[in-house]
Amino acid sequence: MIEPDDIDSVFVPARKPSVTGIELDGEMVLFDEQHETIHLLNHTGAVVWQCIDGAGAAEVIASDLATAFGADEATVSRDVLALLRDFGRKGLLSDVRPDDAILDEHRLDALEAPELTDG
Amino acid sequence: MSSSRSAEGEARTALEARIADPVIVNPPRFSDGFGSAVHWHESRRYRLVGHDFAVRATDPGLVRAIDAMYGPCADDGCPTTWYSVVDGFRSGALHALYVNDDFVIEASQASIIFGRLIWDINRSVIEKSTEHVLVHAAVATLGQVGVMLPAAAEAGKSTLVAGLVRSGFDYLTDEAAAIDPATLEVVPFPKPLSIDEGSFDVLAAIRPTVEGVTAAYFEGQWQVPANSIRPNAVGGPVRPTILVFPRFAAEQPTVLVPMRRSEALVELLRNTFDFHADGRRNFVALGRLVAGATCYRISGGSLEQACARIRGLVNALGHVGGSDD
Questions:
Q1: Distances from the Cα of B279 to the Cα of A40, A54, B132, B180, B249, angstroms
Q2: How many angstroms separate the CA atoms of A84 and B280, rounded?
Q3: Per the CB < 8 Å rule, is B270 touching A29?
Q4: Which residues contact B178 (CB under 8 A, 6 or more apart)?
Q5: pLDDT tens per residue across span B107-120
Q6: Which residue from A minimizes the CA distance to B291?
Q7: Distance between CA B116 and CA B252 in Å, rounded?
Q8: Which positions ≥6 away from B43 have C-beta within 8 Å?
Q9: I need a surface site. Which of A79, B147, B172, B323 has the fewest CB within 10 A?
Q10: CB-nearest partner of A119 from B194, B260, B261
């Protein structure tokens, strides 16, 4: 188990099996059954999430994306690392220690579960 | 089912004598004498999604009102749950509610007992409908198009769906959308529409008529059967393809804005009853539902304008024709 900030370019990210994702118009909503959390990823986050296959290192993901989008590889590498660390803090990656405070913010229970209306 | 006034009076006296006994500290169980102590009036049996119940009461007017409220869900046979509403409890000035054999609540105001009865019926529907994904939402249909209105309490769901039904939509629920996770169809939960005091003026035309002493049960909130708003107003199962998240904003103009599907899914998850009981199933089902829908937010203070906007959405998406008449 490593800390999110220790994720570097040779780290091989793997999605946690407890996480289910749904793509909607290029964005993604993720549900982590283990921590009972919900996460909304923007377009960039969704693309990086979909590149995680448990085999390619962070630098490979960055290189592939830079090629695919015709972008500067150093910039893409920095963004990919930032996103992977963010995924790690949110408890979405195997073998990365989540940040409990961030988990609490994303629990559905913290998002005002419905109460039955009177009547 | 009705008895003569004198027989009813004798029964009431017997009940009062029994429950006014000062040595009784805890309320008696229902089977502990109530069943034969008074003359009961019984409703029909109702099957509401997963809940199977009937109501008995000492007030025949209340039973008539219950039969009108839950009429679309009537069934034959014996229910698994009996609600018993007792007038003249303890000193004679109280009302009480039992569920099967268990005492639930006593109160001097009949409306408190009735509110608890309705709440318990709704809660039981939600607790027992484990095969469905249950979202805090109203649902109506027009020309086979399902419109879901998910929102927290006090957002105006019941008022808005009442307005839609009045304008020609069919009614499925004003409280909980019971979604089949395989077909994504909403199963009708056609409870009476619960209309709060704040909407009495704008919905004055659908005010239910309740007779005599029974009116005390309905103080502060109307329970309006959909079929009293418009005959045959209860619709069949439908997969919603339009999601509109309402928010009542008094005296504000009506604003309808598109909503990102991802944002709509998160809002739906927030409004799902007991989400974590089967989180993955609920997540996947609601994700599929949102993927096949268009999503909006609506806010404002005009019921008429909100209904017209929603009808316009249905028409603009090419689902049905028709006017706002």
A1: 16, 24, 12, 15, 32
A2: 23
A3: no
A4: B49, B125, B129, B132, B133, B134, B186, B187, B189
A5: 888 889 999 999 99
A6: A24
A7: 33
A8: B54, B55, B56, B63, B66, B67, B70
A9: B323
A10: B194
ipTM given for this complex: 0.89
Is B15's pLDDT higher than 70?
Answer: no
Sheet of A19-24, strands arranged across: A19-24, A27-32, A37-41
What global pTM score does this model have? 0.85
> Which residue's entry shows tokens 């629990």?
A107
First to last CA, chain A: 50
Residue B318 pLDDT:
64
* Contact partners, residue A66, CB within 8 Å, separation at least 6: A72, A73, A76, A77
User: pLDDT tens across B158-195, in order?
Assistant: 999 999 999 999 999 999 999 999 999 999 999 999 99
pLDDT over 90 percentage in chain B: 59
B262 to chain A, any CB pair closer than 8 A? The answer is: yes
CA A88, CA A13: separation in Å to the nearest integer? 9
- Give Cα separations from B169 to B182, B191, B220, B311 (angstroms): 25, 16, 26, 9
Q: What is the DSSP string of B283-312?
A: HHHHHHHHHTSEEEEEEES-HHHHHHHHHH
Contact B86, B58 (CB under 8 A): yes
In this predicted model, what pLDDT tens digit does every residue of B41-86 receive, in sequence order?
A: 999 999 999 899 999 998 888 999 999 999 989 999 999 999 999 8
A110–chain B Cβ distance below 8 A for any pair? no
Q: How far is B93 from chain A (nearest CA, A)?
A: 24
Range with top average pLDDT, A8-12, B30-34, B206-210, B298-302: A8-12
Band (B11; pLDDT cuts 50, 70, 90): very low
Tokens 């008074």 belong to which residue? B38
